[in-house]
Write a structure and sequence with these properties.
Layout: E1 2-13, E2 16-28, E3 33-38, H1 44-51, E4 59-64, E5 67-68, H2 76-79, E6 80-83, H3 87-90, H4 97-107, H5 113-123, H6 140-152, E7 158-162, H7 170-187, E8 190-194, H8 198-204, E9 207-212, E10 215-221, H9 222-226, H10 233-244
Parallel strand pairs: 3-8, 3-9, 6-7, 7-8
Antiparallel strand pairs: 1-2, 1-4, 4-5, 9-10
Bound molecules: adenosine-5'-triphosphate and magnesium ion.
């Protein structure tokens, strides 16, 4: 579904070239969930921005559904949706939820918009009446549900999630993660999820890519990670921190 081949992204920093993403190759099969972990500044969000079509590769290729992503068409932006850490920042505070959900539908000329909005709200566990509320009238968890509804309403195949629950309370985090997990299974969605929290990644992903200084230093399945089969010292280090903080990797419940 998604593939990068030696993806490289460079920025110009006061006249010098800075390589934020350095020859990263990864494959995410349809219906699976790939986690990106690594320290701050290692290039995780930059990879997501490139996959979303909003940032160009300096070199290397991105393939979505087998075709190269060079000059994405409007339909591409329907197929690949992004969910951010801070739903407050990504929802227009001046618009009611109904309008926030209607805008992408109008932009992409969907029919039966009122029905689709109602269904999207129900799908993420919000009442239909949430339509008349403003973002500030909702809780953090409810706002993130709106952001998920806005992504789903486009009927995407791929959802890119950048720290989708790190701004939420731990109890609400588990609810939203379980919702994301269920939606992926029900709809056969493909996820790429960025998180600094290995417990979140272990809960939601099949495979992870470990980023350090713009390079993907290891890819490993979550099963192998938990079986202690990480090879790269940095992956082992991340796992040691997670275990030291007593993160519990549980299939059904996220607890610590
Ligand atoms: N538009 C930009 N111009 C210049 N440098 C950038 C730009 N965007 C990102 N960078 C740099 O690229 C590097 C990778 O940034 P990125 O946001 O991908 O990191 P990250 O892994 O998502 O970090 P975090 O966990 O803190 O979100 C950083 O050093 C960042 O400063
Ligand atoms: Mg980031």
């Amino acid at each position: 579904m998604l593939e990068t081949r030696e993806l490289t992204i460079e920025f110009n920093r006061s006249g010098k070239t800075f390589t934020a993403v350095d020859k990263v190759s990864m494959t995410v099969t349809q219906g699976s969930s790939f986690g990106l972990v690594g320290e701050s500044g290692s290039g995780k969000s930059t990879i997501l921005r490139a996959l979303s079509g909003f940032m160009r590769a300096s070199s290397g290729d991105i393939l979505v559904g087998g075709s190269t992503l060079k000059n994405p068409e409007k339909s591409f932006f329907k197929q690949v949706q992004m969910i951010f850490q801070d739903p407050f920042g990504s929802l227009n505070p001046a618009h009611r939820i109904g309008r926030i959900l209607d805008e992408p539908l109008r932009l992409h000329s969907f029919d039966n918009r009122a029905d689709r909005i109602r269904r999207a709200l129900v799908d993420v566990g919000l009442p239909e009446t949430a339509q008349s509320r403003y973002p500030h009238e909702l809780s953090g968890g409810q706002r993130q549900r709106v952001a998920i509804a806005r992504a789903l309403i486009m009927e995407p195949q791929v959802i890119l999630l950048d720290e989708p629950t790190s701004a939420l309370d731990v109890s609400v985090q588990a609810e939203v993660l379980n919702l994301l997990d269920r939606l992926r299974t029900e709809r056969g969605l493909t996820y790429v999820l960025v998180s600094h929290d290995l417990a979140v990644v272990a809960h939601l992903c099949d495979e992870i890519g470990v980023m350090q200084d713009g390079k993907m230093v290891e890819t490993i399945t979550v099963d192998n990670l938990l079986a202690g089969e990480a090879k790269h010292p940095y992956t082992q280090h991340l796992l040691a921190i997670a275990l030291k903080n007593d993160l519990v990797f549980d299939e059904n419940q996220l607890s610590r």
